[in-house]
Amino acid sequence: MPPRSKITALPPEVKAWLDSALVDGDFSDYEALAAELRSRGFDISKSAIHRYGQAFEDRLSALKVASQQARAVVEAAPDNEGAVNEALMRLVQEKLFQLLMAQEGQIDLPKIAKAVAELGKASVVQKKWQAEVREKARAVADAAESLASKGGLTGATVQQIRKMILGIAE
After folding, report:
1. How far apart, in Å, are the Cα atoms of 140 and each of 145, 150, 169?
2. Does 144 share its domain with 156?
3. Pfam families attached here (predicted)?
4. pLDDT < 50 stretches in the chain
């Protein structure tokens, strides 16, 4: 197993600075970054920064592509019920479980536990939001049904309106 990267051992504020400097500098001028780190008391070679920078740039690029694709999907198929979010949470849960099984003993268990807890909270919030949307839609449908029947609409028309309103929540 290769030695752990010195960059991962940097204090959080220094690593945050490095990440920002890499993005701001368009992932170039590793010599200047190495010199700046040396002036801050960290002896990290330009090659190590370059390796880290390449991996970071790849992850950032993949994230940008995923964000663009997600935006396109949402625009093409709006998700009023949060099904995409729920599917994403399940996918992340599955990936975390695979990671846990594949690298047992080599992972940061507290981080995984925190991620699982946050997913659980997100799932609860998602379910609550879905229930609230359904309840609001039912209330609007009931009110519309009451108004429509007083306004002389036929029963079939009233039911059509009700189905249209509830269709966004069920």
Report:
1. 8, 15, 11
2. yes
3. Phage_Mu_Gp27 (PF11985)
4. 169-170
